[in-house]
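Quick one: structure tokens for this chain, please?
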Amino acid sequence: MSDVDTAVATLLEEKPHLKSDLREILAVDAAHETWSFDDVPVDSGAFGEMVSRGIVAKRDGEYEVADPEAVRRRLDGETSASPVSNSETSLVLSLPSLSSRWGGALAVVIILAALFRGYTAPSVFRGEHIVFLGNDPYFYRHWIRQLALAEAGPLAVPTGIQAGEPLFIAAVWTITAVLGGSATTGYTVLALYPLVSGLLTIPLAYEITRRVTGERRIALAAALLLAITPVHVFRTALGFADHHAFDYLWLALTLLSGVALTRRNPRERSVVSATTLFWMGVFAVGVAAQTLAWNAGPLLLLPIALFSLAAVTTARAHDFSPVPVLTPITVGLGLASVLVWAGHLILGWQPLQVVLTPTLLFIGVGVVFLVGVVATRYSFSPRVTAGGVLFGGVTVLAVTLVTLPEFAAEFSSELARLVGLTYTEGIAETISIFSPQYGTFFGPALFFGFVLFFALPYVPWSLYTGYRTESLALLLIGTYASVFAVLAVIQVRFAGELSIVLAPFAGLALVHLGSIVDAVPRPTILDASTSVDSRPPSAVTDPLTIPDRQTIGILVVVFLLIGGFGMIQGPVQTNKSVYSDEAYRTATWVENHATQSGSSLSSVYVFSDWGQNRMYNAFVSGNSESYGFAQSIYPQFVSATQPDSWYDRLGGRVDYIVMTSVPSQGEDGYQQTTHAILYESLGSATLERGGAGHYQAVYRSNDRSHVVFRPVEGAVINGTAEPGSTVTISTEVSIPNAEFTYTRRTHVTENGTFRVIVPYAGTYTIGIRKCQLPLMTLNLEPSYKRGKRFRCNSADCSEE
């Protein structure tokens, strides 16, 4: 079955009304060796379909039917002979049509992707609670809770997030409102959305690849590798509800619409058709959504600006007009600007400097477009054209920075933050994928497996081939991949975006490597000598078949070579964000304890390491907007050597302190730190370290990994004893999962007095070393919290 035979069959299946147009073209082709568009009585849209699918081919500046016999057979209801199958050769699947076969294969890939991302369900849905993965999702949980408490209507966005991710919150809340508007419903929607968004990007990546390469086998390989790419897996896992998965969907739609608008014969004269208008609308919505969904979304639009420069330069180098391609791109940017301004002026979304970005991009691309038109009109050389478009783009940016100082300040600030190659406020995702934090050379494999290393070489190839063969669609995805590769090198937070735009190259690498070992035919796109965009986007070399056993084995080995490590790393990276059972039990225990103590939950604050801080506060008070206090203060607190001196510094803000093990326990000086005193000794004094009197241990997890304290004023014990001696004070304490002896030691002053603060109510044993005083007991009532003072001597202890 030839490519043209397949393309005609697909065209007639999708658009049977074009059958008469095909007959008209076939009649003209029979009468002329070559002909022009004006010679055939069909409209530009129908003609463009036939050219784009390879049914009609370009030759010497005119057109011809690529395979008249194949077209005639299809029009007469005949098909080419199907391959004969036996046990030693490939077996053709007995499915209704070629499209359904590939659709079934894609469905299998999507199911595989769902398994990789949905296995976290038991860790997310725990009884009455929904436990998100990681720290950031609790920020959005906070806002969904606020909207639920306010019984807000659809599209509502709290003021505190209108300058951050307004479209994201609006989308989640609108679905929640339609489903009833409760906080629990909102949390469920928030937990499920990453999985849904991630699964939707799989077929979008498939379609992008299919349109660019013209081969479904490469498209299926791209979808398969994206389904197991670690960074895409854990960023779109069930429960990983930050904004990134939302951004991926709009990025994929924008890229797909861009490919659809650019994947055409660049010498076609038609500019507008129903198909073009549709994709132009999708492009506008994608650009607008990326801008409104994230205040750093404008960075995702950078490839469009660079592509416009490359497109105009390519057009001039090959002597064709950039108008048919850049017109819908430019108009789409204009429509996107209108949508963004509407969101800003009507709904108050995003600050002015963010809203301006698509408008400035529209102006910049428009200027580049005009330079290209002028260059074509006056036949400027490619070098002069390239200089002109670069000058035009830089001029637009320079004028903007001079005339809009607020935008210039924000631009400088974001640029400085972007290029910082060290931690930003301790946040790991702001460092490079090549950072020593991940392993300078091994780090990328943690996020991409080996897919990155196999796919990246095809990116410069796509730029070169796109320029050489006039394939603007190939040039577009090459530009996207180049930009996001640079951004990911700068900050790992862009690695997820890179995984999507890199998928077509990963699919190409897999099929190409398979062809090298003679398992599959060589990708025809690698041998393109003319415009790749004239190839049929749905062409395949063969029907979808089940290869023989040996070929299957080879393909499995090739797949594991490229994607095997990623299949392991995806779950590994996801599990790092899953909260352990003990962390969950600790959070629920604190929640119950705060409720039973009669505290006003809305004002209760849990102090912990910043990476888990939002989770604890979400469970206890619901206020999980910020981890700023924990991020800036907690590291100082646990590394201090005088924990009681921090009691006043915490300023009464902290109600609970949650401590977990830290990797620094083996460092010099650790034994004297607050972390060692509280976490390891539960506040007791030992031979190695002093104790603490303002921290009452109230809970320890079953595996001893989590300990909870309450800062308390405590009771002050004043006593007299032999000067220079050492006094030991102790009491038995029982808390959930732990029974221990709380001990304090203090030195008696030269005046013969001592003073000790203790945090527990109960009976204390006071032993005085180096003197013959008898043991004494001290009964402390629960009212010790009010700071009662006791004076002890050799006879008794009494309240002052």
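DSSP finds 29 helices and 18 strands in the chain.
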